[in-house]
Amino acid sequence: MRVPTDSPVLVLNQNYEPLNVCGVKRAVVLILKDKAQLLENGRGDLRSAAAHHPIPTVIRLVSMVKRPIFTRRLSRREVFWRDGFACQYCGRRAADLTLDHVTPRVRGGTHTWDNVVAACVPCNHRKAGRSPSEAGMRLLREPHAPRPNPYHHLMYRRLPDKWSVYLPWMREVSVPAQV
Ligand SMILES: [Zn+2]
């Protein structure tokens, strides 16, 4: 089996939290230096002149690494994630969500976490340029800025399905296909 040395390997922290993705070559080096342990291979062996090494797909660092904290940037995707990909007026999970300004921008509503929510197209049309109370609509919950997301850099990558067992956000939310 030929495996490119830059094939992705999931790197878990010592406490099994996902940290990042590296290439096979780097993962093998980490294992050989006793800095990481092999959790899963499944890609066969990497042959060198001296030895055969199992090719890792998931490794775990031997010692704990302090993870970087990423504050969440306000974007459509982040708002949809925060709102669980559900319209915040009717609760429907929709693939064609829109971003709604609770207090419309023309009324001085700000483009801030506490004034934007996910809304389905019918609810957004119904609300139009009005506040929720004027439109006779209610928010399911008050919008707030989400906590910093430690997995930000991994969440938007295309990751193999079989890694989902190691990825907390894949267990929490299943994303509609079109989003
Ligand atoms: Zn709706």
Which descriptors would you attach to this protein?
single chain; 179 residues; alpha+beta; DNA Binding (I), subunit A; 4-stranded mixed sheet; 5 helices; 19% strand; elongated; binds zinc ion
Would you write up a description of this structure?
The protein has five helices and eight strands; from the N terminus they run E-E-H-E-E-E-E-H-E-E-H-H-H. Among the domains are: 54 residues, no CATH class; 52 residues, DNA Binding (I), subunit A. Helices cover 18% and strands 19% of the residues. The strands form three sheets. The protein has a four-stranded mixed sheet, covered by helices on one side. Strands 4-5 form a two-stranded antiparallel sheet. The structure holds zinc ion. The site of zinc ion has 8 residues, from helix 3.
Give the topology, please:
Blueprint: E1 8-12, E2 18-23, H1 24-32, E3 36-40, E4 45-47, E5 52-54, E6 58-61, H2 76-82, E7 98-101, E8 116-119, H3 121-127, H4 152-155, H5 168-172
Parallel strand pairs: 1-6
Antiparallel strand pairs: 1-2, 3-6, 4-5, 7-8
The structure holds zinc ion.
